[in-house]
Design goal:
single chain; alpha/beta; Rossmann fold; Dehydroquinate synthase-like, alpha domain; 2 domains; two-stranded antiparallel ribbon; 15 helices; 9 strands; 52% helix; 10% strand; globular; binds zinc ion
Length: 407
């Protein structure tokens, strides 16, 4: 399946705004790899550099390398030594040192971290970037920024989305379950991101675009519908459909950010939780857990916060404008319990321990995650009523599947 640039309809958007159109092409299909040499030939690329780590090289990198050899396309390859390279100065340096032959195109064969690094390097070097995805683990493939670690801090740098994104369903479906769960979790974060965006829109007049919202909404809804139809033990073909849908949704989320010009359509309080925990892990010298897994978990926490406030709203504790905005912004939200059940089915971890944290860190994040970004979310609404302490004490941090028999 080839998704041509389907974002052109946003050129004349009903919201009256001029959106920046994403200009990447996406190829999702089991024959998708052929798009790589095709792209290189069409664009007269002379000497691309393949970038991978030992795992992704084994999964797909070597195959790309052979394919280019067969097609007579001269190229170099940089395979990082570590299996989990960080997107930090060290690896950016290694990448630059690998550019000995002045590549005129960078081809990442990887999931999150390396794609982030290469997206940034390609932007700096003003060469095109072809991203071959090895796992549907995050929404950064189509992103126009790159989150990198600088002096131990995560900083978002300007970058450029790849010119071509390739996903092979059979490969994506064979990725570790945890990485697929992370991609699913990152996509589900758009549910609470939407409520936060609408809340800010109705309460503070922040710019909103219903058409971009609809693009993200459809990606989330389609994925949930497919998840509900797919069982863990289903045939490969069904699993491939599901990961393709997740990947497509993540790419649309990235496109939505480019269209809107800022990350609102894809990121709200659930992402602030994730950033908060990530900063903590970096500070303490731990390897942070996959971004999307934390987002998928935080989405459940934020849904609980919305429910808690809905209760106060029914008791008349919100001001009239707040209550009106709250009703308009949150009517679509699923119940936190229903979300947990669905997320659990997709292997999203719903307890702090499974994410390498403890309960205290979760409750602390309820109090403090709002300070991570200067952006209005449900956390700011709670803070303005001095509710964060109570929320921190009362949210359920550990979800247990319903027991079929009780002792
Ligand atoms: Zn619009
Ligand atoms: Zn995300």
């Amino acid at each position: 399946m080839t998704l041509h640039n389907e974002y052109t309809k946003f050129a004349a958007c009903s919201c009256g705004r001029t959106h920046t159109l994403p200009d990447f092409q996406t190829v999702l299909g089991n024959q998708g790899l052929e798009a790589v040499p095709q792209y290189l030939k069409t664009h007269a690329v002379q000497r691309p550099l393949l970038v991978a780590d030992p795992n992704t090289w084994a999964v797909l990198g070597e195959e790309v390398h052979r394919l280019l050899d067969d097609m007579g396309i001269a190229h170099d390859a940089l395979v990082f030594e570590d299996t989990e390279p960080a997107a930090d100065e060290d690896h950016l340096g290694q990448l630059m040192q690998g550019c000995l032959h002045r590549p005129d195109c960078l081809v990442s064969v990887a999931s999150g971290t390396i794609t982030d690094l290469v997206r940034y390097a390609a932007y700096l070097m003003t060469v095109p970037h072809v991203a071959v995805a090895t796992a549907p683990s995050m929404d950064g493939y189509a992103s126009s920024v790159a989150p990198l670690i600088s002096k131990g801090h995560k900083i978002t740098y300007l970058a450029k989305a790849p010119e071509l994104i390739v996903g092979i369903p059979a490969i994506l479906a064979a990725a570790p379950k945890k990485m697929i769960a992370a991609g699913f979790g990152d996509l589900m974060g758009k549910i609470t991101a939407k409520a936060d965006w609408l809340l800010s829109h109705y309460l503070h007049g922040e710019a909103h675009c219903a058409e971009i919202q609809a693009l993200v909404d459809a990606a989330v809804a389609d994925t949930i519908k497919l998840l509900e139809q797919t069982e863990d033990n289903d045939a490969e073909a069904d699993q491939e459909l599901l990961v393709t849908k997740i990947m497509e949704g993540l790419i649309h989320s990235g496109a939505a950010i480019t269209l809107m010009g800022f990350s609102r359509p894809a990121s709200g309080a659930e992402h602030h939780f994730s950033h908060y925990w990530e900063m903590q892990a970096l500070r303490d010298g731990h390897t942070p857990e996959l971004h999307g897994l934390k987002v998928g978990y935080a989405t459940w926490i934020v849904l609980q916060i919305y429910e808690w406030i809905r209760q106060r709203r029914s008791e008349g504790q919100l001001s009239a404008p707040e209550a009106a905005a709250f009703d308009q912004a949150t009517g679509f939200l699923p119940a936190a319990a229903a979300y947990a059940e669905m997320a659990h089915k997709a292997h999203v971890v719903l307890n702090p321990e499974g994410l390498g944290m403890d309960e205290r860190q979760v409750r602390q994040a309820v109090r403090e995650a709002l300070y991570v970004r200067d952006r209005y979310t449900v956390l700011r609404l709670a803070e303005s009523h001095n509710w964060l302490d109570a929320l921190a004490d009362e949210v359920n941090v550990r979800w247990l599947p319903e027991q079929t028999c009780t002792a």
